[in-house]
Amino acid sequence: MVTVRAVAVAAGTALLVAAALPGFLRLLAEGGLARRNYRERLVPVSAGFLPAFAAGFASIAHAAAENPLGFATAALTFGALGIGLLDDVAGTRHETGLKGHFAALLRGKLTTGALKAILLPALALGVASSLKRPAPWVIVDAALMSLSANAVNLLDVRPGRGIKGALLLLTAAALGSLSRPAADLWLAFAVSVAAYAPWDLRSRAMLGDSGANAFGLVAGWFCVLALSPVARLVLLTLLSLVQVRAERDSLSRWIESSRLLSALDRWGRR
Predict the structure, then answer these.
(1) CB 197 within 8 A of CB 104
(2) Is the pLDDT of residue 76 over 90?
(3) How far are the Cα atoms of 128, 141, 147, 158 from residue 234, in angstroms, in the given order?
(4) Backbone angles phi, psi at 43, to 5 degrees
(5) How far apart are CA 247 and CA 261, in angstroms?
(6) Structure confidence at residue 102 (pLDDT)
(7) What does pTM read for this prediction?
(8) What are the pLDDT digits (tens) for 39-49?
(9) C-alpha of 195 from chain center
(10) Nearest residue to 24 via CA among 55, 58, 54, 68
(11) Phi-psi region of 85 (alpha: psi -120 to 50; beta: other; left: phi over 0)
(12) Closest CA relative to residue 73, chosen from 168, 188, 207, 230
């Protein structure tokens, strides 16, 4: 169950996203923050910044009302937004995948992708340690959060795919045992994703690294809060397999080769 205050905050968050998103997309396009999608259509990138920022602001509102998880959730959100925005603005596509970015680093070239691969886990580790769990579980939880962020980012190459990845992780958390403070925060992020989703599905916007990292990292955080140790290990294994697959081959090719995954991928897309 969530509190009445949480419902009010979530409603305000959804209304803010719905009202501000058209103007924000126009601002991104006019500022040159647009990228050609798989159909060679120019689409505003970093569009996920707005809904994630709104949900992060909702976390601060909850923290001000003495939600014990509010500030940690806000720190994850705004930290991931900043790290991802750097990649959106200054990143190049010359190196791809963790292997490519760390190979460049070994050659003495620091890429925004390598910086992101260092800073996001550090952020996740810092917040995971606040739960005061045994050290091995702090590492597991930080890895789960980091790989959740990377998984959503990897999926953000087709309309709606990254959003569906974030929603799957949020659903996994909801199926677990969320405390009331966690559920209050979860609701703000869930409605923020839902308010943004139609624009992404219609190829009118892309999450970008900022939005994908923020929603993925925080969705992973909710899984850390809600799931049992065994469930967290299972999810970590699945996310690791996605990462390994992405390093070896195209995730799009893998998804399109499966009738079920392909149907889920196309669902809702216009």
Answers:
(1) no
(2) yes
(3) 18, 12, 13, 26
(4) -125, 135
(5) 19
(6) 65
(7) 0.93
(8) 888 899 999 99
(9) 15
(10) 54
(11) alpha
(12) 188
CA-to-CA dists, residue 187 to 7, 31, 71, 182, 222, angstroms = 8, 32, 16, 9, 11
Three-state SS string across the chain, please? Answer: CCCHHHHHHHHHHHHHHHHHHHHHHHHHHHCCCEEECCCCCEEECCCCHHHHHHHHHHHHHHHHCCCCCHHHHHHHHHHHHHHHHHHHHHCCCCCCHHHHHHHHHHCCCCCHHHHHHHHHHHHHHHHHHHHCCCHHHHHHHHHHHHHHHHHHHHHCCCCCHHHHHHHHHHHHHHHCCCCHHHHHHHHHHHHHHHHHHHHHHCCCCCCHHHHHHHHHHHHHHHHHHHCCHHHHHHHHHHHHHHHHHHHHCCHHHHHHCCHHHHHHHHCCCC
Answer yes or no: is pLDDT of 101 > 70: no
Size of the chain in residues? 270
How far is residue 234's CA from residue 237's CA, in Å, rounded to a whole number? 5
- Which residues partner with 44 through β-bridges? 34
37 confidence band (pLDDT: 50, 70, 90): confident
Q: Are 252 and 85 in contact (CB under 8 A)?
A: no
Domain regions of the chain by residue span: 4-266
Query: For residue 196, what are its two tokens?
Result: 């943004």
Per the listing, tokens 């009445």 go with: 4
C-beta neighbour count of 253 within 10 angstroms: 9
The gap from C-alpha 47 to its chain's centroid, in whole angstroms, comes to 12
What is the spatial distance between Cα 59 and Cα 70, in angstroms, rounded to a whole number?
5
Q: Name the one residue in this structure whose structure tokens are 């939880």.
A: 141
24: Cβ–Cβ under 8 A, 6 or more apart, which residues?
47, 49, 50
